[in-house]
Specification:
The structure is a homodimer. Chain A has seven helices and seven strands; from the N terminus they run αααβββαβαβαβαβ. Chain A has about 200 residues and is α/β, with parallel strands linked by helices. Chain A folds into two domains: about 1-50, Helicase, Ruva Protein, domain 3; about 65-165, 3-Layer(aba) Sandwich (Dna Topoisomerase Vi A Subunit, Chain: A, domain 2). The interface between A and B is large, with 56 and 56 residues.
């Protein structure tokens, strides 16, 4: 019954944290929304899938060759914050602690899962540091085992280049995920970074 | 930054129960989904908005003139369950307690908010009862003040027609919403219905 509503409910349950009851609630809400608002949700999903790609310099999400951060001339280009995922940039930007550049690794080292350094954007980071007068690399990988291994590995490959390599401070509880940190904790962690 | 992601996040926060952090999580999940899956979510939203209308008989949601329930010949056509909203039908269907027809009022009486009987599909219910050999009308409006007033009102307008009018039993806690009832409670409430 309700064929079209049922399909919307089924589609919505694909999303994380959306069970059958939430999906049902969302579906009937969508049904009651002004058509233009519902359409602009559909359009935003479509657009993100059709135009999203990785920034050719830092691997942030963008819809053009360089992302908005990389193409912003007012940024401090001497400092690069290294993160695991594009979504981490959003969280760090919100702290307003830095106005710098980023580098997204697109993951963290995990030899057991076959995630070796070549699978991540580490060589690309080394090239950026070599060629662009970078003075400090702030490693903001997650404060868990994979993130730590990744930070240590990057510290080692950057060592010959003489660049300052720092690690975001442990204001974050160990074993957690940077994604869910509150802004104050994350700001403190950025301030308290220490050299590796 | 992340223009397209930001717009998707903003769009998603329009939905009920989706705050900024959940929206962010959903947006990055959508970004990582296979394109076809994300597109079919967008398509389901679009389709629901473009094709959904009310059943001309019972005011359920449908994409044709009669809804799937009304056009199902195997249904018991002597009994009509009256609900406030189309979404309530889905919940009642899931109990499998009845294989009957429905009538959606599209709201509940609330004189204080200007919701008078003419604003609801009550006349249409009376016409159905008059013309279609209905033997029982089960009133399944919400067990709260508005739902009770609505049930009493319907009982009165149907009285001259001599049809049996029953009210869903109070297995449901008072003041709650039928939308969030579990199936067992709702089944029991349907079984224990009593004549008004």
């Amino acid at each position: 019954m309700h064929g079209i509503i049922e399909s919307l409910i089924t589609e919505l349950t694909r999303l994380p944290g959306i069970g059958r009851k939430s999906a049902q609630r969302l579906a009937f809400f969508i049904l009651s929304m002004p058509e233009s608002e519902a359409m602009s949700i559909a359009e935003a999903i479509r657009k993100v899938k059709q135009t999203a790609r990785f920034c050719s310099q830092c691997f942030n999400i963008t819809d053009s060759d360089l992302c908005e951060v990389c193409s912003d001339d007012s940024r401090d280009r001497h400092r690069i914050v290294v993160v695991e995922e594009p979504s981490n940039i959003l969280v760090i930007e919100r702290t307003k602690a830095f106005r710098c550049l980023y580098h997204v690794l697109l993951g963290a080292l995990s030899p057991i899962d076959g995630i070796t350094p070549e699978k991540l954007k580490i060589n690309e980071l080394v090239d950026r540091v070599k060629n662009n007068g970078v003075q400090e690399v702030v490693i903001a990988t997650n404060p868990n085992t994979k993130g730590e291994i990744t930070a240590q590995y990057i510290k080692e490959v950057l060592h010959p280049l003489g660049v300052k390599v720092t690690r975001i401070a442990y204001g974050l509880p160990m074993g957690s995920d940077i994604e869910f940190a509150d802004e104050v904790t994350l700001s403190k962690a950025l301030e308290g970074r220490r050299e590796l």
